[in-house]
Amino acid sequence: MAGGSVSVCTECLFKVLVIGERGVGKTSFITRYVNMRFKEEYKASIGVDFALKTIEWDNKTVVRLQLWDIAGQERIRNMSRVYYKEAMGAFVVFDTTKMETLEAASQWKHDLDSKVRLASGSPVPAVLLANKCDQTEGNKELSSLMDNYTVKRKDNLNVDEAGAFLMENMLRIDRGLSSRDNENDRINMSQSKATFKCC
Asked: What keywords would UniProt list here (predicted)?
């Protein structure tokens, strides 16, 4: 190619964990995010399931997300170190109709931080997802709390935005760029009140 510039395409493969209590909607979230469809029926995951999503991030970067759907049973949590190994990010999911799953999400995040770290020693980026927010609209206290973390997998509300936010943080780490200030670690959705925070 005389006088032309060569465009370098970068391919990134990121292992992303999807963790949270049993029945919070992890598998439904993954199905919506990867396959763009919603399934009403519930089938508990046993052990771990996998899904792959390929995204053309920009004209030079292709991102492949290997999503690990970790079952929420206690016995699985005890074996999680094997599943967490080499993860670059995580979605921590809770069910807005069961507030005890929010407390459990905190425990899942603590478990994540204790079992996997980035090469720098920092925790892997994680996004807290409040699932089934369409079922809590009558609860004002819950609604005000959830303004910052809502995802409606059924209606595809903020599902892609949550994924993009996590990918942006993983790419930043992968490319060795410094992380943003804490106050800038949030994104606001113009169509909704939802905000995601990387933790």
From this structure: GTP-binding, Lipoprotein, Membrane, Nucleotide-binding, Prenylation
For the four alpha carbons of 70, 19, 132 and 184, in that order, the dihedral sign comes to negative
- pLDDT at residue 12 tops 50: yes
Q: Answer yes or no: are the C-beta atoms of 154 and 96 closer than 8 Å.
A: no
Per-residue confidence (pLDDT) for residue 140, from 0 to 100 = 56
Report pLDDT digits (tens) over 14-70. 999 999 999 998 988 899 899 877 666 656 666 578 899 999 999 899 999 999 998
Looking at residue 134, its amino acid is: D
Task: Name the pLDDT band for 96 (thresholds 50, 70, 90).
Answer: confident
- Counts of helices then strands in the chain (DSSP H, E): 6, 7
- The secondary structure of 23-73 as a DSSP string is TSSHHHHHHHHHHS----S-----SEEEEEEEEEEETTEEEEEEEEEE--S
CA distance 141 to 133: 13
Residue 115: both structure tokens together: 């079992």
DSSP state of 196: E
The HSE-up count of residue 28 (CA atoms within 13 Å, CB side) is 25
Ordered domains of the chain (ranges, CATH): 10-197 (3.40.50.300)
- The confidence score (pLDDT) of residue 121 equals 92
